[in-house]
């Protein structure tokens, strides 16, 4: 997918609606989901059709962030949706700015634990350009968030893209220390990031089940490890674990509500720290400036209060 700068900077949505169903990782229930085209500047919005007939519209924005334990959840308008990050990651990976996600239950189906099934659906739908400039913000100066020995540092870049270098270090013989980098590119995302599956440890399963989580977990929707080895079969990449961390970040950063132009370096991070970065970016007005779509990197007058997208 080779694009000129001008083309790259227009908003994109789906060419048609696609429907899928699958099991919720936490609920274990069957869930139906439609991905539908949406108008320019509407962003990504979950539309939860609740069993009592009421409908909750929940934009994928930081102000609606909910659960952050083992997944990223959103809540608002009287509803809650869990495990949004892999679908958001696929939409971001394919540079889809506007999409309505109609969902029959409060959790995005886990599918195979990766974003590949969503990429397949988006390819089926087709992606079209819209007559509106992409809402890009560039980082103006370095920023760091940390928690214990985990941290994320974002720095300005001359590139017009978001790029990431991710490091993990798990004290497990099958993981250990690994690192990977990714620079925004839909083709590379689809082949090198989307297939990386979520992973979990067998010893955590009972604890999570007691908390009412991961009722739908199986060896078919995650890389599962006992204390010594991987028990769910072959890895898709030798460094699948760190690639999945990039996949998760790519989904969580959507909650900024804009396309981000920056280079990000993350060490031992996770959903909570990803969210902390988004919160810091939104709460520190001089950290972000609009990217002029015609003249690269010209700073325009901008107030954070006017950047909220309205729901479609
Ligand atoms: Zn994940």
What would you note in describing this structure?
The protein has 312 residues and is an alpha+beta fold. The chain has a single domain, classed as lpxc deacetylase, domain 1 (2-Layer Sandwich). Helix content is 21%, strand content 31%. Strands 10, 11, 12, 13, 14, 17 and 18 form a seven-stranded mixed sheet that branches. The protein has a five-stranded mixed sheet with strand order 2-3-8-4-5, with helices on one face. Helix 2 packs across helix 3 and helix 2 (85-93) packs across helix 6 (240-252). The longest helix is centred in the C-terminal third of the chain and has 13 residues, at 240-252. The protein is globular. The model is unreliable at 1-7 and 295-312 (pLDDT under 50). Zinc ion (ZN) binds next to helix 2 and helix 6.
Which outline best applies? globular
Largest sheet: number of strands, sense, barrel closure:
7 strands, mixed
End-to-end CA span = 29 Å
- Mean pLDDT equals 88
Rg result: 19 Å
Tell me the helix content. 10-25%
Bound molecules: zinc ion
- Total beta-strand segments: 18
SSE topology string:
HEEEEEEEHEHEEEEEEHEHEHEHE
Query: At CATH's second level, what is the architecture?
Result: 2-Layer Sandwich
What is the name of the CATH topology?
lpxc deacetylase, domain 1
Query: What would you call the structural class?
Result: alpha+beta
What percent strand?
25-35%
Query: How many domains make up the coordinates?
Result: 1
Low-confidence stretches: 1-7, 295-312
Q: What CATH first level would be assigned? A: Alpha Beta
**Oligomer category:** single chain
